Backbone:
């Protein structure tokens, strides 16, 4: 294995910059401690690493890695003040399956050095004495935050994958296993500091409209988030594990889950699924069972275990594997993180749609199309209820009905043959197409996991929200130096107040 070069040894190369990104050469001279790399730089391959190798088909103008707020400000002011302005994309601590932070004409601002977390003092006027807040840097990932909070006796809402960036996940919606009890990522955003194109930092304490936008559409449109303040809670007693069922019982599992949902799921419960093919068990459904206890009493732990038994009784089915037990949020997310990390790096093909229900037609699509072997392909099923579906006019995120996000995700391994890659991509496309043909997909979708060509801002957010977001974009980024955020806005069509890909 190639030796990993320590970050302290990384440096810009004026020769490659002069040849490959001459517009950024002066920034390298003005800010010699800021790392700026292009493809010929000896460190570029390691710095540029992607989870999805298909995203390597396009390269950015250059990657800029500031190590401090001052270096970040210098880079932002330089790019926005250059004639013509150099557009910027923003990469936080995580990754995007579609590589939307890579644009050939743009400098990618890579925030991997901004990994910090500070526990904030609770204010006497706080609505509940049990809730606290932390301020996190834009480079921190979910598993890094879990590890930091666990030692302080705290816990926070995140998604499944530990390698996902906290800021991007939170600002773009944020589905997760704790959504029923704690809400989505957007529901836990308390504030942010955002660096504008002129280098000034705007705090959402002074701009309620910006806070509203951050809660659902804050992935890079309005500047660079240099601090996100999020709600955390005392570490609860926690029940979690995986229930594994054979795919041949998909009708029982999925229709039984839907029947429980129709009855009304407890907010304590989190139940989301992956449907894949394993070497040991073949085609299978993995149901991630979590239960956040209301208190530390044994009675509330018993409530969680009793609900698991109710779930199994409803399904009338014994799982092939049952790992559900009392654990901790950190321990369970470490387990999930390890399983995902072992298979993430490869050739991804992904799609996503939202559904109101798991109907017989939808279940039929799943049963007809088991995931291919030889990789880590799976159908991801996110589901929200409880706190996550409560209306909130302080957030631009507006998809507040109970629904599922169903995402076929095919991952061929790094050594995959052309045929393997073709098979996995075709499987993703068949699942997506057949799901659409049921006529049951909702207009609103989840931008973070949807193909760019399937994203429509008006469908996803609604015309009134798009108009308000566009006006704020005009106000905070009139020169459109951050043109590649999510959702994407077109400055040339701003007079029509329309957003589009």
Residues:
């Amino acid at each position: 294995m190639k030796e990993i070069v320590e970050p302290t040894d990384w440096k810009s190369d004026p020769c490659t910059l002069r040849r490959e990104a001459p517009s950024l050469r002066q920034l390298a001279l003005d800010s010699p401690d800021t790392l700026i790399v292009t493809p010929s730089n000896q460190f570029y391959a390691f710095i540029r690493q992607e989870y999805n190798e298909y995203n390597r088909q396009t390269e950015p103008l250059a990657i800029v890695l500031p190590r401090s707020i001052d270096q970040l400000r210098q880079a932002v002011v330089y790019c926005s003040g250059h004639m013509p302005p150099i557009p910027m994309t923003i990469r936080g601590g995580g990754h995007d399956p579609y590589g939307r932070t890579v644009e050939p004409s743009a400098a990618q601002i890579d925030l991997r050095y901004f990994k910090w977390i500070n526990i904030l003092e609770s204010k006497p006027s706080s609505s509940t004495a049990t809730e606290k807040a932390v301020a996190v840097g834009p480079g921190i990932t979910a598993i890094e935050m879990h590890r930091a909070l666990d030692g302080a006796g705290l816990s926070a809402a995140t998604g499944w994958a530990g390698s996902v960036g906290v800021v991007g996940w939170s600002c773009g919606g944020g589905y997760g296993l704790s959504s029923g009890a704690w809400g989505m990522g957007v529901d836990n955003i308390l504030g942010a500091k955002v660096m504008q194109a002129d280098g000034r930092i705007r705090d959402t304490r002074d701009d309620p409209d910006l806070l509203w936008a951050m809660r659902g559409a804050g992935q890079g449109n309005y500047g660079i988030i240099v601090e996100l303040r999020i709600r955390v809670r005392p570490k609860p007693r926690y029940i979690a594990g995986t229930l594994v069922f054979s795919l041949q019982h998909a009708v029982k599992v999925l229709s039984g889950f839907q029947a429980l949902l129709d009855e009304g799921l407890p907010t304590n419960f989190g139940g989301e699924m992956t449907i894949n093919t394993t070497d040991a068990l073949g085609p299978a459904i993995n149901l991630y069972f979590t239960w956040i206890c209301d208190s530390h009493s044994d009675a509330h732990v018993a409530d969680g275990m009793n609900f698991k038994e109710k779930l199994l009784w409803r399904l009338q089915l014994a799982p092939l594997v049952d790992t559900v037990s009392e654990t901790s949020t950190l321990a369970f997310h470490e387990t999930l993180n390890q399983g995902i990390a072992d298979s993430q790096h490869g050739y991804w093909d992904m799609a996503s749609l939202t559904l109101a229900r798991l109907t017989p037609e939808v279940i039929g699509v799943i049963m007809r199309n088991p995931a291919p072997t030889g990789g880590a392909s799976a159908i991801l099923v996110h589901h929200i209820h409880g706190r996550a579906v409560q209306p909130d006019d302080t957030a631009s995120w507006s998809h507040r009905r109970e629904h599922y996000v169903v995402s076929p995700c095919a991952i061929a391994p790094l050594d995959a043959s052309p045929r393997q890659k073709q098979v996995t991509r075709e499987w993703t496309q068949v699942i997506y197409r057949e799901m659409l043909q049921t006529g049951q997909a909702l207009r609103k979708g989840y931008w973070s996991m949807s193909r760019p060509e399937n994203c429509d801002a008006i469908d996803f957010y609604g015309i009134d929200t798009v108009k308000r977001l566009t006006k704020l974009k005009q106000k905070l980024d009139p020169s459109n130096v951050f043109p590649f955020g999510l959702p994407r806005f077109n400055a040339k069509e701003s007079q029509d107040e329309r957003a589009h890909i």
